[in-house]
Amino acid sequence: TVKGTVIRAYKTAGADPQRGRVYLIIKVKQTQYPVDAGPAWYFDSQQMMIHVGDAVEVRGERQYNGNELTLIAEEIKKGNYVLRLRDKNGIPVWDGWKKTGDE
């Protein structure tokens, strides 16, 4: 779990917008943590809006790609709002949702 300030929030798009993802960069003291917040279509369907400068708490699992660390978000808290992205077993909550395209 990390508590910090969002210094960057962006979406990847690629050729298929349905496969885009939301990423956050969270600054905690002098350390920056990249956070994979899940598919853009799911994130956009939620009530939570995240902007640069927001104070957040992110709980998740560390994943390394070589030496690069990414935090795979399980839950994001902002104020009193909690956005759950994965269950206690790490299964995405959007599994089983009807959607266009594949995740």
Folded structure, characterized:
This protein has 103 residues and is mostly beta strands. 5% of the residues lie in helices and 51% in strands. The chain has one helix and six strands. The chain has one helix at 40-44; strands spanning 2-11, 21-28, 31-39, 55-65, 68-78, 81-84. Strands 1-2-3-5-4 form a five-stranded mixed barrel. The longest helix is centred in the middle third of the chain and has 5 residues, at 40-44. It is globular and about 35 Å long. It starts with a strand and ends in a 19-residue tail after the last strand. The mean pLDDT is 88.
Task: Give the SSE layout.
Elements: E1 2-11, E2 21-28, E3 31-39, H1 40-44, E4 55-65, E5 68-78, E6 81-84
Parallel strand pairs: 3-5
Antiparallel strand pairs: 1-2, 1-4, 2-3, 4-5, 5-6
Strand order within the widest sheet? 1-2-3-5-4
Shape by Cα distribution: globular
Find the count of extended strands (DSSP E, 2+ residues): 6
Helix-strand category: mainly beta
| N→C terminal distance | 25 Å
Average pLDDT, to the nearest integer?
A: 88
Element-by-element helix/strand order: EEEHEEE
* Residue share in β-strands: over 45%
Query: Treating each run of at least 4 consecutive H or I residues as one helix, how many helices?
Result: 1
